[in-house]
């Protein structure tokens, strides 16, 4: 390990630890609000959730700078624009479900950044693997954020999802649920497992994606249909040339944040579907979702030949905060508590 890599590694770890400890401390400081008013407590937790969005965008911006080209279907032409500083601005519905193909371990960070551009980074709920909730500090904080942890045992997961979706349906604030229907990163062995399933069930296998898992998304839509407006579909492609076929095999978390590997460019194409138009019958929904995935696969296949996604306009930007000083928001609650304690001490 070179000196430069060591410095990057320890700087990243230090920023992550300081940030997550600060955020978790802020979450814990607000727990007495549960006894006073649950609605106020939920608003407080949403406020601290914005800190997490800011932290992760800051980490990407500082340690893994990522150029982005964003395109979208023509009917979405008025929802995306760049401000005078070249930062992406997004207009999105207040209550929505977001799905995407899963290319890298950092995909969820990029989607949190996209939520940040829509000022919805306080209201995001992410579906994650159950094991992640036991990560010290970070996992505890995600549990307080009511992220949804699944074990891939349906009886247990259905009960978990029903409980959390009941909360999301009743919360008066905006809400954005993030799911990766493929369930895991696209690499050689996961693609082969998906292909075995496709061969077994007699369905066509995409060239550039895994087959989506139907049950979780179908159940989510059935539970949230009454309170959600749109389903947003993001298609990610990375234009880095490598002898390895899959992006996740080239750009691990270690390579991106410790070793300084740079993504040449991330391309994102956005589509939107009105949830009320999505089939409610499971068989029809399976057909609908597979068709959307085949369309995504064709988008990626065409991208390989043209070098870009279709759309009325291409927006070129980077994953970044509007101002790096926003990172100081993480300490606002701690500073306020310190100031209050100091003022009280003056009168004692």
From TrEMBL:
Coiled coil: none annotated. CDD domains: LPLAT_LCLAT1-like. The chain crosses the membrane at residues 50-72, 327-347. It comes from the Eukaryota. GO terms for molecular function: acyltransferase activity. Keywords: Acyltransferase, Membrane, Transferase, Transmembrane, Transmembrane helix. One of its GO terms (cellular component) is endoplasmic reticulum. GO terms for biological process: phosphatidylinositol acyl-chain remodeling. Residues 96-218 form the Phospholipid/glycerol acyltransferase domain. Belongs to the 1-acyl-sn-glycerol-3-phosphate acyltransferase family. This is 1-acylglycerol-3-phosphate acyltransferase.
